Amino acid sequence: MHVRRLDTGRLVLGGAVFMLVLLVVYPIGRLFYQSFRFNDVLALGNYASVLADSSNYVALAHSLEVSLATVLGATILGTLAAWMVARTDVPGRGFLRSAFVLPFIMPPFVSALAWRQIFGPAGYVNQAYMSWTGATSPLWNFYGVDGIIIVMILNLYPFVYITALGGLERMNPELEEVAQISGSGRWSVMRTITLPLMAPTIASGAVLTFIASIANFGIPAILGFRANYFVLTTKIFELVTRSAQANSLSAAAALSVLLAIVAGLGLFFQRVVLSRREYTVLSGKSIQPNLIRLGGARMALLVLSLLVIFVTSIAPSLAILMTALTRAYGLAPVPGNLTLNNFYDVLFVSQTSVRAIRNSVLLAIGAATIVSFLGALIAYIVVKTKLRGRTLIDFLANVPYSIPGTVVAVAMILAWLRPIPGLRFTLYNTIWILLVAYIARYMAFGVRSTSGSLAQVHTSLEEAARISGADWLQTFKDIVVPLIQPGLFAGWFLVFMPVLRELTISILLWSTGKETIGVMVFNLQESGNTTSAAALAVLMMLVLVVANQVTRRLTGGRLGY
Predict the structure, then answer these.
(1) Higher pLDDT, 452 or 441
(2) 8 A C-beta contact, residue 345 and residue 532
(3) Is 37 helix (H, G, I), strand (E, B) or coil?
(4) How would DSSP label each residue in 198-240?
(5) Residue 408: which pLDDT band, with cuts at 50, 70 and 90?
(6) Is pLDDT at 385 greater than 70 in this prediction?
(7) What gap in Å lies between CA 488 and CA 331, rounded to an integer?
């Protein structure tokens, strides 16, 4: 009697698709369904309620105000930085190339904390000003729209810098050379040839900045709450955590859908920009870009570049460190006021901080490990099979990272608020809902990091193993996994880093005993324990720096900051 052999390949890959549906399709579907559920019936009542509330229009206007101003400032700063590195003979170009990306290592909410400690009412600059002048009020209150926009620009300009730098370095210089031969000066060539050709690339970075800024929660929360300045992300947070109205979750779902639409319009615009991009201006061969000889301006631009690096990276890092080492917030950082007790407290005394560190590390390790392997299976379906619908599978894996984290968090609340059918427990108010949300949010990293490696694995290697009697699972374990290990490790660290510092999702999903580092830093800051918040933030950044260096080493500098 012939016994049919179990097809392990279909079983494993089918399980991966099922997990993708459970992690992504179900929560997002539940979000949309709940947004139309009003007083236990399907209706447009939630959208009517959201659109009738004038405060939501104010929050939308604030979101657009902050995002558009951030795009303008980040585009100017990022483009100038990229131009100096790629097209001038400014000294130290190699150092500047990496240094301009440093703001990416500092989490946005930590950057907001740092600048609050510099320019807040009790910040170092205002304290020095009042001490020197005898004034009784601060020089500048950093809370509100001004502070939010400035910190957004300083934190997000690398989006434009990275995209513009890549375009400038790969641009075919022949058109510029022709213009120079025709008698045009270098500055005229840059204005009439270089910038117009680079416009689509710069616009792409600007759109990425818009999406990141409109989805940001940490900066508007830390610098906006005390000034009663709300954007869409903080408005949703308020609706979920501070509202007692009957349909608050449904209203939050409706507002989340609107936020996703606004962010989606930015993503759609980016795709339109890229589809119209003139790729013929890029050279596929190794090229040497035309460098502008700055002459006497070389040192002036170097000083300006170092000033930008100091303001965007060094000053906030020093501010966080000084606050972490100070006995009490507001004291001058002189030797008599310095102590290591804040680090000792968050590492050994405060059980809540110790628990938050442990939770974040375990969640980061768990999410990174699961995403690496689940992402590899999904990437295998997309790259190595001819399964009908694999493009849709790839799209679904990228959806949670393409929409604001606040939207993902609300979707997870609605999906897992009630007990799982057939079971007696619920994921809500447990640490597992955080793990599920992180896996869904960063699934795209696991898929993208292994797709390139899988494309390089020749089909003949798998066929040889199958001919030798190995089933699909053995082939994948013994042939494919060893060959894609660099991609797996890179994906692991690319997930570990953002999960460890995550705030936007965690702030809506955490519960007592399930705190994370990001939530703990935020809560300590909001409760007035600024020095402990700073100490915990410094420890988090140290781990992030190490993880970033490991990622760069594993990928030869291709990934990481």
Answers:
(1) 441
(2) yes
(3) strand
(4) HHHHHHHHHHHHHHHHHT--HHHHHHHGGGT---HHHHHHHHH
(5) very high
(6) yes
(7) 47
CA 341/CA 327 separation, integer angstroms: 8
Three-state helix/strand/coil letters over 71-113: HHHHHHHHHHHHHHHHHECCCCHHHHHHHCCHHHCCCHHHHHH
Query: Two tokens at 11?
Result: 């079983």
8 Å CB contact between 352 and 515: yes
Q: How many Cα atoms within 13 Å fall on the side-chain side of residue 292? A: 20
Picking from 352, 313, 312, the residue whose alpha carbon sits closest to that of residue 532 is 352
The structural domains of the chain, ordered by start, are 44-312 (1.10.3720.10)
How many alpha carbons fall within 13 Å on the CB side of residue 10?
4
Question: How far lies 431's CA from each of 103, 428, 517, 538, in Å?
Answer: 30, 8, 13, 24
| 294 three-class SS | coil
User: How far apart (Å, rounded) are the C-alpha atoms in residues 37 and 30?
Assistant: 10
Secondary structure (H, E, C), 109-177: HHHHHHHHHHHCCCCHHHHHHHHHHCCCCCCCCCCCHHHHHHHHHHHHCHHHHHHHHHHHHHECCHHHH
The pLDDT-based confidence of 150 (bands split at 50, 70, 90) is: very high
More confident residue, 175 or 501: 501
What mean pLDDT comes out for the span 294-307? 84
321 burial level (CB within 10 Å; 0-12, 13-18, 19+): middle
CA distance 560 to 544: 10
- On whether the CB atoms of residues 355 and 363 are closer than 8 A, the answer is no
CA 476-477-481 angle, to 5 degrees, is: 80
- Spatial separation of the C-alpha atoms in residues 71 and 52, rounded to whole Å: 29
Residue 319 · residue 118 · CB < 8 Å:
yes
Query: How much is the pLDDT for 153?
Result: 95
Rounded (10°) CA dihedral 533, 537, 539, 541: 180
- The answer to whether 12 touches 473, Cβ cutoff 8 Å, is yes
pLDDT at 108 over 50: yes
Q: Is the dihedral of CA 248, 250, 256, 258 positive or negative?
A: negative
Question: Which residues make Cβ contacts (< 8 Å) with residue 212, sequence separation at least 6?
Answer: 156, 159
Q: Return the DSSP state at 297.
A: G
Pairing of strands 41-42, 37-38: antiparallel
Phi, psi of 466 (to 5 degrees): -65, -40
The whole-number pLDDT of residue 219 equals 93
Q: Which neighbouring-strand residues pair with 326?
A: 338
**Cβ–Cβ under 8 Å, residues 282 and 170:** yes
C-alpha radius of gyration, the chain, whole number: 25
Give me the pLDDT at residue 243, please. Answer: 56
pLDDT at 178: 63
Q: How far apart are CA 178 and CA 192, in angstroms?
A: 12
Q: Which residues contact 296 (CB under 8 A, 6 or more apart)?
A: none
